[in-house]
Design brief:
mainly alpha; 2 domains; 2 strands; 64% helix; Metabotropic glutamate receptor 2-like; receptor
Amino acid sequence: MSHAQQVTWYKQLHDLNKLNQNTPIPKAKTPNLRSTGQDKEALALTQVGYSLRKLKASYYSQGNRARKILAQRLRDRWTTSIIAHIQAPNGDRIVAPKAISDEFATHYESLYNLKYDLLTPSTFIEDYLSDAPLPTLSKVYRDALSAPITQQEVKDTIKTLPIGKAPGPD
């Protein structure tokens, strides 16, 4: 399918849809709209088939090597992640990469610039925790949790580990 045919089909479909929106036509009298829609589906399927064959051919010719295909995919990903412009708080449009970077730095600096020092002790947290209705452990549970781990507990735990697996730090 040539590009000219594609443009013609899209124009016909657009014109028929616009005509149908202005003066709705019963479904029985819209064969042109249906046939144009079917042509559009056929065109889309043809384009998908072509793209799939092209992709398979490139994978076949490149094999298991990550050269052009990887470079192309990385380039495509890189171009989609570029920030072309931003709008500054004063309404100006910023397009220079350095100015965009500086504007982001200024924004996040003001966002995370805390008004108090985290290193100085605060009684706010202590007051909140003392007033909060938090559950507490009984003396029996506290003693069991703070007791030293015995060799027998370690042996029993090792026996329950799956065979062929090494215990890790977690």
